[in-house]
């Protein structure tokens, strides 16, 4: 795609450097900015830069935070003895949306994946172990997606915590709500039978 | 979607104010910026602001331009007597991509649409008439998409230019290359029969 303006072409290039934004979409976004008042673009740019320069990671749970300790960790309403271990902050947002969790989090940052060169020391396992060793934590819920990397990570963490008497659970694996049995893969379906739940009548 | 960071939430808000970008996509883009170096965000922001503040419209054809006269209008290789009339700069980019047009352009900015309150005086028809009156132009190609608004605009412009001897054509309407006849709408198919082209053998 060729443009008769270098300014335009640089702006399109910027947007299309973002994941999932192609040249056509980038052009559409730039033309939208041109249709709007200049201060709309200036505000947007200022907010992105401010966010990138000032955002921190919570020193306790490594969630994204405006302060040294995030809103969740500093809330008096949250149970500090219950920790949900997640891969990244997208998982925190998803779990918060459910409204079913009232503990705090621990963000690993990634999962162990030897194939991608990600070892246990590359993710925040040592930090989790030291949080457990501080004796504040009673239960850990592993909210890690079921995959080879996820299972490896859970197994490694559980070994690392074998000296402690903290209780470890994983989120339930099973057929999705509204999911059809015939479309569930055999591992999910197999586990949902093994982990069957007593029907209360 | 709720975030534990105001900075994050403002950045997501900014991205999702763009057309076609929802909250989930906006979050994905912001998390990408967080994964990259801060200067990536700063560069992007600077380029968008620079573009928005400095971009001009070509004083001749109203294409987007870095200077008072755009690259196309100021090129010695382009035929200034042949003007292609388009709705917006996206159309210019599409036509330039074909590599089949060597004249110059005139950007109307919109099409006449009484239902949306857009009259002939809201689009750049007067400017086109004065370009024609300056006697430089021999032929006008209306590259306007076939719709009620497009046909109205073409009709209005042709009336406004009836005093001049400039030749006016429209781009050919017909079945797309590779298009199946059975899927073509009846107006397109009807026109493609009326405007049939002699087969050279």
Give structural notes.
The structure is a homodimer of 201-residue chains. Helix content of chain A is 43%, strand content 12%. Chain A has 201 residues and is of the alpha/beta class. Chain A folds into two domains: 6-54, Helicase, Ruva Protein, domain 3 (Orthogonal Bundle); 78-170, Dna Topoisomerase Vi A Subunit, Chain: A, domain 2 (3-Layer(aba) Sandwich). In chain A, strands 4-3-5-6 form a four-stranded parallel beta sheet. In chain A, strands 1-2 form a two-stranded antiparallel ribbon. In chain A, helix 1 (6-16) packs across helix 2. The first copy, chain A, is globular, with a radius of gyration of 22 Å. Chain A starts with 5 loop residues before the first helix and ends in a 7-residue tail after the last helix. The model of chain A has no long low-confidence stretch (mean pLDDT 89). Chains A and B meet through helix 1, helix 2, helix 3, strand 2 and helix 5 of A and helix 1, helix 2, helix 3, strand 2 and helix 5 of B.
CATH class of the largest domain in chain A: Alpha Beta
N-C termini distance of chain A: 65 Å
Number of strands of chain A: 6
Order of helices and strands of chain A: HHHEEHEHEHEHEH
Number of discrete domains of chain A:
2
Oligomeric assembly: homodimer
Using the CA coordinates, give the radius of gyration of chain A. Answer: 22 Å
Estimate the mean pLDDT confidence of chain A.
89
Largest sheet of chain A: 4 strands, parallel
Shape of chain A: globular
Helix content of chain A: 40-55%
